[in-house]
Amino acid sequence: MKLIVGLGNPGTEYNNTRHNIGFMVIDRLLENYNHDKLKEKFGGLYTEIIINNEKVLVLKPQKYINLSGEVVKKYMDYYKISIEDILIINDDLDLDVGNFKLRPTGGSAGHNGLKNIELMLGTQDYKRLKIGISNNKNIDTKDYVLGKISKEDKDKIINVIDIAMNIISDYMILSFSDLMTKYNRKQ
Q1: Residue-level pLDDT at 37
Q2: How do residues 130-175 score in pLDDT, each as one tens digit?
Q3: Model confidence over 36-57: pLDDT tens digits?
Q4: Is 35 a residue of the active site?
Q5: What rounded mean pLDDT belongs to the chain?
């Protein structure tokens, strides 16, 4: 079983904000698989779906983003999911809007959700799909990531979410190295 986690903040006030791109990807994934029933357990909303004949646990942690690791750890422990079988989807300030990058490991780059995941898992060695939100140095980082996505940026983000659907599908059948070779390119 694989675990796909989209990072975001719970609550309608955070809908359509930059920090909630992980949730947006999960919502689209569930929509594509005609699956809108999420159950609640361990501080997260989750469901199981089958993608390319692989059972996948899909998770949206419902604690604030800086506590995401607590929820991820509980699901990994309960379902006995190996760290090699998790994919975290998060926003990334260092990538321009419309860009993305698959990474097999790495630091948090200041992302509080990733910091907490690293703390709770005791490692930086977990797979991630980072989706660019750019960075506006004229706005406080917290205000920027919690800010609403502009119409112009939304179109670019929707395009990346479309690509993310293919990435997730291929994640079930390709090695992560092959997945990165297929999708990571100069954008």
Answers
A1: 87
A2: 999 988 877 887 777 888 888 989 999 999 999 999 999 999 999 9
A3: 789 999 999 999 999 999 999 9
A4: no
A5: 92
3 state DSSP class of 169: helix
Domains delineated in the chain: 2-183 (3.40.50.1470)
Tell me which residue of 10, 27, 129, 122 sits closest to 66, measured CA to CA: 10
- Alpha-carbon distances of 69 from 1, 7, 98, 114, rounded to whole Å: 19, 10, 26, 7
Cα(99)–Cα(130) distance, integer angstroms: 9
Helices 112-121 + 68-79 axis angle, to 10:
40
Cα gap 151→58, rounded to integer Å: 28
From 125, 72, 134, select the one nearest 100 (Cα to Cα): 134
Torsion 136-142-144-145 (CA) sign: positive
Cβ proximity of 146 and 14 under 8 Å:
yes
- Indicate the burial class of 77 (C-beta count within 10 angstroms; 0-12, 13-18, 19 or more): exposed
Catalytic member of 3, 5, 7, 19: 19
Q: What is the dihedral of CA 77, 39, 164, 109, to 10 degrees?
A: -50
